[in-house]
Amino acid sequence: MASLSVPASGRGLLRRPTANTGFWSWFTTVDHKKIGILYGMSAFVFFIIGGLEALLIRAQLYQPDGTLLNADQYNQIFTMHGITMIFLFVMPMSAAFFNYMIPLQIGARDVAFPRLNAYSFWVFLLGGLFLYSSPFLGGAPNGGWFGYAPNSTTDPSIGMTFYAIGLLITGIASTVGAVNLAVTVVNMRAPGMTLFRMPPFVWMGLVVQFLLVFSLPIITIALFQLLFDRRWDTAFFDPTRGGEPILWQHLFWLFGHPEVYILILPAFGIISEILPVFSRKPLFGYQFVVFSGIAIGFIGFGVWAHHMFAAGLGPVANTAFGITTAIIAIPTGIKIFNWMGTMYGGDIRFASPMLYAVGAVAMFVIGGLSGVTHAIVPSDYQQTDTYYIVAHFHYVIFGGAVFGIFAGLFYWWPKVFGRKLGEASGKVQFWLLLVGFNLAFGPMHILGLQGMIRREYTYPETLGLTFWNQMSTVGAFLIALSVLMFMVNAVRTQLKARGETIEDPWDARTLEWLTSSPPPAHNFDEIPTVHALDEFWHRKYVEDERTGRLVPAQAGASDESEPPHGGGHGSIHLPGPSYWPLVSGLGLPIMGYGVLYSWWLIGLGAVVVLVGFYGWALEPSVAEE
Amino acid sequence: MADLAISPEHGAAGAQDEHATSTGLPNTKIAMWVFLASECMLFGALISTYVLYRGSSQTGPYPDDVFDIPYTSVSSFVLLASSLTMVLALASAQKHDVARMRLWLLTTAMLGLTFVGGQVYEFTLFYDEGLSITTNLFGTTFYVLTGFHGVHVTVGILMLLSLVSFSAADRLPHDAAFPVEMVGLYWHFVDIVWIVIFTVVYLIPTPSPAPA
Amino acid sequence: MGARLTVRKQALWTLGLVALALLLSACSSEATQDTLQPVGEVAKQQKALFVPVFWVAVGVFVIVQGGILYIAIRYRHRKGRERMPRQTHGNTRLEIGWTIAPAVVLAVVMVPTVSLIWELARPPAADALNITVEGYQWWWGFSYTDDDMVTDWDRPITIADTMVVPTGREVYLSLESVGGGAQDANGDPDFQVIHSFWVPELFGKQDVVPSQTNHILFSVDEPGTYEGQCAEFCGLQHALMKLEVVALEPDDWDAWVANQQTLPPGPTDPLAKQGEELFLNPLSDGRGACTACHAVGDAGGAAAPNLTHFADPTHTCFAGCNWATEDREALAAWLEDPGAQKLGAKMPDYGLSPDEIDALVAYLYSLT
């Protein structure tokens, strides 16, 4: 085994941490795998919180004139539900998968900037905690996750100021993480891994990072403008001084639409990994899947005003955006047909990951179709701001992205933890989730078309909406039950003694399965050389000369098989653990509280940031010999 | 494919350095370009806001009432000159002329500081003429746009001074040209943004509404 | 073979029955804001565009989901049969096919779509009725701005909560967001925010945006009452910002206009007269005055609903159209403490005594 060097404790103000194991090592780790786990666990906790908020919403709406929550409480809860699910669950959970898997799938030892990676995680977590401190400090954000001005600029509660600052903080985390992962994919691939030999999950990841890089700055400016209007009385969205509230919507949705592709493309990547493995065939139309992902990324910047069809932009704009919205359905459809082509003619095994992946495709199709109906602009004048829209985006985000996330969890659990989640429980949980999900959100199509507006804390009996609201609430609680089952499954799996290590439980195709489960800190004893797409698969199976069919390769037959040789290519230098990412990250929420309460705190926070960055810059990332 | 080119960097921090990269370029350089792309979007949003609201202020002072184009031209020239000195600093670093490198870096920082100082002074003049950040849309959009730019310049000055002090403390890698080049990329970007701002905000005339 | 077909058939039948149940329930509803039971011309056109596209989507759904189900069942692994499937990488013809086919379908669908966008954006006919719709936090005001809609006291006819329109004539709405002088119990004013004006059975919504004026052009042939509500989150009581549209046949419409243009007959009974005194004059003990915000005739302000013809039969609801005007108890409760009925309402609790409330109610009911 190649020798591994770990940094000795260094000079400087703080003794450099050295531990790579143990509780405290999680605070200083720069290992992409541990950071991936940190992201995953934090995101899951926020998923639970967001889910509880959803249950409160559904319980309140179970009957007309509900009294469980008053208007003020309801508005905070639905706002936090949206913010939590989007910014604190789906995005960080995608980051968890990208962080853990991308370096492994491209044959790298870590990401391009490991300490920056840790920084991204801590800033995300601190941003989430900052947002959730708001109910204790005067009120949670209550203006919707979309925060339309002037309601968001004029609302008397402190909540929307927390909203602006909190999302600015999490936005920094995502931007920094995006730069890191983009450079990793572009620049750290194993020898022989050309762009078109990358797994589709890595491709989707690359597109997502560029979507983040280009869209986050726009909402950053919008949030600053909102913050300045609220805190320092600027005129950005003030109609009495000539400000135009529509500007907020443009800026928000210029980010917001690429954001929804940021939410779904990771799941598309996961699906594109799982379907081939469990059909035992390559991804059908790999280049088309890749190109359609890139196309979706580009066109995604051209459809934003379809969220504003009723805002009065005029027939020219509405026509243009209606057309671009219709166009973006095409690359999406291409992916779906290619996934079907992957399964067609295969030898399909329906283990839990596969159930979830196919479920995700099926649910996304429904959401995608309702999305196409929104492109019918005059009809959207009826649909927009109703539960018909709520149905649409839950089908694509929950049905598509969250089912995809569950697929990824079941698929990669053995890679990360060396053991498989319980299969029987997983299957039951899938069907329960499928039923509960459709019961919760299916009826919302009807509710919307029958006149139920969004974001209302109650509705009268006379509107005839009661029955389907009740069904929806029942569905929501079934979802909760399913998630609970998953958690029990996870805990039981982790608590039981690890049996024999399963190296390649699914007979997979990509490089992360080349190394042990879980991988060692340095990922690969030797960086593999890549000769083809699905490199790992091709090392296991070769074409039989006689029949042309695939047969298992002889052990050791390939020159590039990977038994670890001793010594060989010199020592592997891994970046050492560090306090500085966490320390400099802490400066940001301090500055945030400063904006709310005191200029001195802003100054203090800035000092913490600067000290953190200088400590970081002066600390070598690798061992000092 | 050509992406097996070897480009080792020695010394600069990061596990990346000792290995070949897929593009042949160092990670930090690609990261800086990607970051600058996001900064384009950031300033794009700010400038778009300014342009959208141009001419929409309901009360004065208006741009014509406060702008002193000759003054700001000098200030812009100072910033432009700092890009030249930045290039000279990089050239010195590439020739391993450490003393000259530090000199040019310091000069760049001083010129940047002069620019920022000039901006701050200009803002105090505007404020005295009744233009605050809350007065009207012009005040709001102008101060926020130029303020963001000023903060970016200030961060750049900090980075320049850090390069000088790290060099003096012998904490820069042997190949000092690389971090100097990275800071240079950022500095030039900030300068280009200023050229756009100067043109769009100061030079292109804003129609003042007719007096009531 | 038989077993597989049965499973697939079962699955498809189940799906079909569920879909049918959903559709039937959607059609035969008691929903009063049902976009699928349009009455107004615009709403009918919008549904007429939606329905065919919906069926196209259903068709795609059946094909795709059916395909997935078929493939999942047909190609599932059979125990004991180990086979390595053919490692097909793709098929360019198929790719072209399934790129072009959806594009064609979408293009076809977009033609009537674009056509209706422009149709709905057309300018109004010369004889259209002009109404300015005003969005407040959290109620709707309506101002009839045509020259022939002016009252005897030289103001446009102004009402709240119910919008009255004639049948068989174009109505052109100008949507304005208004912030006013009204304040809630914490002293927070009525802010100028974005609302959205929606009466599902008559027309799809348009947003009410400060700094711009959006329009809705519509007409309705059937007399009746149509319900609607604000459809863009506008703050605390967004859920309770409702309205009704009352469509009157021409004779009734003329009578209504004539009535609105004159002052109501003064209150006749003593209790109502007391109420009038209370309404028109500042309340005792410096509690304030109703006319600071409300108006009857030319007396009073514009920050709150105009009460001139409060008891007219067409004025069916009040306070954001959450309570029926004829519901005496609700009216009394509102006057007693608006914030208790509607949290955050921009009308303070004036500390009115039960007698004062009785008098005011009698007065309001005299305003026919």
Describe the fold and architecture.
The complex is a heterotrimer of chains A (625), B (212) and C (368). Chain A has 625 residues and is an all-alpha fold. Helices cover 63% and strands 2% of the residues of chain A. Chain A contains 18 helices and four strands. Chain A has a two-stranded parallel sheet with strand order 1-4. Chain B is mostly helical and 212 residues long. In chain B, 69% of the residues lie in helices and 0% in strands. Chain B is built from six helices and no strands. In chain B, helix 1 runs parallel beside helix 6 and helix 3 (69-94) packs antiparallel against helix 6 (177-203). By secondary structure, chain C is an alpha+beta fold. Chain C is built from eight helices and 16 strands. In chain C, strand 13 and strand 14 form a beta hairpin. The N and C termini of chain C lie far apart (77 Å). The chains are: A mainly alpha (625), B mainly alpha (212), C alpha+beta (368).
Task: Summarize the structure in short.
Chain A is mainly alpha-helical and 625 residues long.
CATH topology of the largest domain in chain C: Immunoglobulin-like
Largest sheet of chain A: 2 strands, parallel
The pair of chains with the biggest contact is: A-C, 103 and 94 residues
Helix content of chain A: 55-70%
What is the typical, i.e. mean, pLDDT of chain A? 93
Layout: helices, strands, pairs:
The complex is a heterotrimer of chains A (625), B (212) and C (368).
Chain A: E1 4-5, H1 25-28, H2 32-60, H3 71-105, H4 114-133, H5 151-154, H6 159-187, H7 200-232, H8 245-279, H9 286-299, H10 315-343, H11 352-374, H12 377-383, H13 387-417, H14 423-449, H15 466-495, H16 535-540, E2 541-543, E3 550-552, E4 572-573, H17 580-597, H18 599-618
Parallel strand pairs in A: 1-4
Antiparallel strand pairs in A: 2-3
Helix pairs in contact in A: 2-3, 2-4, 2-15, 3-4, 3-6, 3-8, 3-13, 4-6, 4-17, 6-7, 6-17, 7-8, 7-9, 8-9, 8-10, 8-11, 8-13, 9-10, 10-11, 11-13, 11-14, 13-14, 14-15, 17-18
Chain B: H1 27-53, H2 63-66, H3 69-94, H4 98-128, H5 137-168, H6 177-203
Chain C: H1 2-27, H2 41-74, H3 92-120, E1 129-135, E2 140-144, E3 157-160, E4 162-166, E5 171-177, E6 180-183, E7 189-190, E8 195-199, E9 203-208, E10 214-218, E11 224-229, E12 242-248, H4 250-261, H5 270-280, E13 295-296, E14 299-300, E15 317-318, E16 323-324, H6 328-336, H7 338-341, H8 354-365
Parallel strand pairs in C: 1-5, 4-12
Antiparallel strand pairs in C: 1-2, 2-3, 5-10, 6-7, 8-9, 11-12, 13-14, 15-16
